[in-house]
Amino acid sequence: MSVQYTLLGFLAEESNYGYELKKKYDGYFGKDKPILTGQIYSTLARLKRDNKVKEITDTSESGGPDRVRYEITDEGKQDLQAWLESPEAPSPQLQATMYIKAVLAILKDGDASPYLDNQRQAHIQRMRELTAQRRDSNLSDMLLIDHALYHLEADLRWIELTISRLTRLKEEILHEQTNN
């Protein structure tokens, strides 16, 4: 997830302080790993440099130092809208990693079944955990959990397909190995 667009999205609702943006970010997206305060302020500094946000100094009579509110600019609004309208590229990293491990297991031990079985069990365990967590979740969290569950399910389908093709994969790998 892009922090800069998240902050722009929050600021499109209303101007706000860096600390309040951090709390909002953590409330929506940082349940497992809160964002660092420094990341919020460094991102805001880059957005300011790029004319996507501007600072508004709050000179309230609180007796403390002036506080800085951030406000999205027209350029920031346009950038946010363009980002929202552009689809994300599908990400095959996990599948690529599982494939690499399967090939390396074949090269090392002659069999990827134990690795794939372990990976399948880890996926099933994670699905159980997420399903239990989903029961007591609000709608926002349910949608995020459903997204994770569907990705795990797709990975499991790939694991099953790969297991069914291990003999052929091993033959191809060994054939390539002898030709190189």
From TrEMBL:
Domain annotation Transcription regulator PadR N-terminal: ranges: 7-81
SUPFAM superfamilies: Winged helix' DNA-binding domain
Pfam families the UniProt entry points to: PadR (PF03551)
Protein name per Swiss-Prot or TrEMBL: PadR family transcriptional regulator
Lineage, uppermost ranks: Bacteria, Candidatus Saccharimonadota, Candidatus Saccharimonadia, Candidatus Nanosynbacterales, Candidatus Nanosynbacteraceae
